[in-house]
Amino acid sequence: MGFLKKDSDFSSGEHFSVVSAECYFQGTLSVQGSLRVDGTLEGSVDNARHVIVGTDGKIVGDVTAEIVVCGGAIEGNVCAEMLEVLAAASIKGDIRAKKMIVEEGGRIEGQCVIGGGEEEDKSAQPSAKEKEKNAK
């Protein structure tokens, strides 16, 4: 992933936040842009666009983001459009994602619900035959 690559366009309005390796943060973090965690974050991450947990990074709390790339550890539930679990990563918590990639060696302890979206919405709605039957 090209997070904070040299040619990133900072004028696009994208916000980047970093919890560096020497950093410890406690509390709920509401991030509108992208977050990289190389230190320890104890608390939830809400509303983020991208969350990247480096190999030495650790989040103890729930994570809600569009895209989550975990190379370190997450101890909490993860809710994302796309989740990537790298080879050295571990997640202890339930996962809800539309798409997920797990590299060989990546560890997950918890329940996973993958997919959904439109298909779930359609299955929750009664079919045309069911509507006719219920109308009678």
The tally of structural domains comes to: 1
Shape: globular
Gyration radius (Cα, Å) is: 18 Å
Unreliable segments (pLDDT under 50, ≥5 consecutive)?
1-11, 119-125
Q: H/E order of the elements? A: EEEEEEEEEEEEEEHH
- How many E strands? 14
User: What is the helix tally?
Assistant: 2
List keywords for this structure.
6-stranded parallel beta sheet, about 45% strand, about 140 residues, 8-stranded parallel beta sheet, globular, mainly beta, disordered N terminus
Describe the structure.
This protein has 136 residues and is mostly beta strands. It has 2 helices and 14 strands. The longest helix has 8 residues, at 128-135. The protein starts with 15 loop residues before the first strand and ends with a helix. The model is unreliable at 1-11 and 119-125 (pLDDT under 50).
Describe the SSE topology.
Blueprint: E1 16-19, E2 24-26, E3 29-30, E4 34-37, E5 40-42, E6 45-53, E7 58-60, E8 63-70, E9 73-75, E10 78-85, E11 90-92, E12 95-102, E13 107-109, E14 112-114, H1 118-124, H2 128-135
Parallel strand pairs: 1-4, 2-5, 3-6, 4-6, 5-7, 6-8, 7-9, 8-10, 9-11, 10-12, 11-13, 12-14
Give a brief description.
Helix content is 11%, strand content 47%. It is mainly β.
